[in-house]
Write a structure and sequence with these properties.
The complex is a heterodimer of chains A (173) and B (154).
Chain A (H helix, E strand, L loop, with lengths): L1 H30 L10 E3 L6 E3 L7 E7 L4 H17 L4 E8 L3 H10 L6 E4 L5 H4 L6 E5 L5 E7 L4 H13 L1
Parallel strand pairs in A: 3-4, 4-5
Antiparallel strand pairs in A: 1-2, 3-6, 6-7
Chain B lengths: L1 H15 L3 H7 L3 H4 L4 E2 L4 E2 L6 H15 L4 H12 L14 H28 L14 H15 L1
Antiparallel strand pairs in B: 1-2
The chains are: A alpha/beta (173), B mainly alpha (154).
Amino acid sequence: MSGRLKLTGQVIAVALVAGLLGLLIWKVVHGSGTTAQPKNFNLDRLDKPGKIQLASLKGKVVVLNFMASWCVPCGQEAPQIERLWQQYRSRGVVVLGVDTADASEDARAFIRKHRLTYPVVRSVGYSLWGPYGLTGVPETRVIDRNGKYGKTQFHGAVTGSDLKAAIDQALES
Amino acid sequence: MRVLAASLAVVAVAIVAPPSALASDQHPSLAEIEPEVMCLVCKTTLDQSDSPFAQQERTLIRRLIDRGYTKSQIKRKLVAEYGPEILAAPPDSGFNILAWWLPIAGVLAGALALGWLAWRWSRGRREPPEPKETARLEPDLERQLDEELARFDG
């Protein structure tokens, strides 16, 4: 009886350890990091009513700009991103602001303050940080016409010239 | 009679005066809410951070207090704005209730396991074996031993 009990305990302990290890592996594989293809989302717009689904933009070059109203560098790069949006929108480029970890009221004030005309969607909390491998804001991802990440991605504030080069590269690919 | 009157007075006061918890829920202060919510960016409670995110969160909480929100309404609004991770402690409802009960269940299970092991250990202990009766020596050998001992003593 004692031997059987001991064996059962050992089996349970091994199963627990294996389960935890499995969870860890799953988290490492799926939980974070930038995959070759950006995860689809369907988020509410902040600038006007409605939703935007990332997958619906396939066939266009998409500039995903992760931002928040409390983030100082986000305010610094916003005018340059707006300028590029005006410059490239007729060439099949969509700039999409993704407001994250932010208060919606403040985010709307940010859009008004910087006179942003490109669409901005709202992601509550950290839901997109894992799938997009975000470590902070701002971060900018350029997605090519095939729905895959372009060669250059930006962690931190992006300059107009760097982003322009990345968009041109994505348009050519 | 006096005791009865005093008791009635205490009960009356308890009924009329709202409990402090209820009062603080109705009219919360920023300092009261800060340790109960997180600064998402800094991964600390709000009272320990002064980052731009924390400043925005504080401004939002102040705004909600000014609008007359109760503490629970403020927390609900914060969750709606920033997600459930904004709360320092998980809500005690739904799946999150596991976070409250699992540690207690773990401690209880550990105590039960310890008790069971102690019970088994105490039951498994055997009394030390009775010393066997020493074999008697041969009469000649015993006499010889007595003589030797007597000589040794003498």
